[in-house]
Amino acid sequence: MQEVPEVPERTQERSGRGLAARVPFQVVEVTGPSMVPTLHHGDWLLVQYGAPVRPGDVVILRHPFQQDLLVVKRAAERRRGGWWVLADNSFAGGDSTDYGAVPEELVLARVRVRYRPLAKGQRSVRGVAAWAVSALRPVSAARSVSRRLRAR
């Protein structure tokens, strides 16, 4: 995933009905194959910082050993010490099986929507129609968590 230059902070502002929290949204680009088939290299994600995380959610987090690197993984379960996160692509690695549970403060955002850009060579009517149907899609916990999780 491309590095985000500055992670927005949660802000609070006064409204007519008291203090209301405003949670910022941001668009980030996916790089790498770790979340295939859910996400592909080049996909764009709308993420919500500070959103509550549930098992099965796709999240943005700071890598525990290289905190200037942001990664996208699936939050599998909450454990002592933080979230156990997994890549949907079991061959890609780079998840909690390598670095353990991720402290909660390193889990920054929840992915809300995925946008898949039209491929350069996709010009046929059938190809463009297939893209149009799947280009914009919510990313939710309702999708299967991971085959690896169910197999354990």
Describe the structure in brief.
It is built from 3 helices and 9 strands; from the N terminus they run βββββββαβαβα. With 152 residues, the protein is mainly beta.
3D architecture notes:
The chain is mainly beta and 152 residues long. Helix content is 12%, strand content 35%. The protein contains three helices and nine strands, in the order βββββββαβαβα. The strands form two sheets. Strands 3, 4, 5, 6, 7, 8 and 9 form a seven-stranded antiparallel sheet that branches. A two-stranded antiparallel ribbon has the order 1-2. A hairpin with a 2-residue loop joins β6 and β7. It is elongated. 25% of the residues are buried. Residues 10-21 and 142-152 have low confidence and may be disordered.
Overall spatial form: elongated
Q: How much helix, percentage-wise, in residues? A: 10-25%
Q: How would a textbook summarize the main sheet?
A: 7 strands, antiparallel
Return Rg in Å: 17 Å
Please write the string of helix (H) and strand (E) elements.
EEEEEEEHEHEH
Number of helices: 3
Low-confidence runs: 10-21, 142-152
Distance between the termini: 27 Å
Class of secondary structure makeup: mainly beta
Q: Which band does the percent of strand residues land in?
A: 25-35%
Number of strands: 9
* pLDDT averaged residue by residue: 81
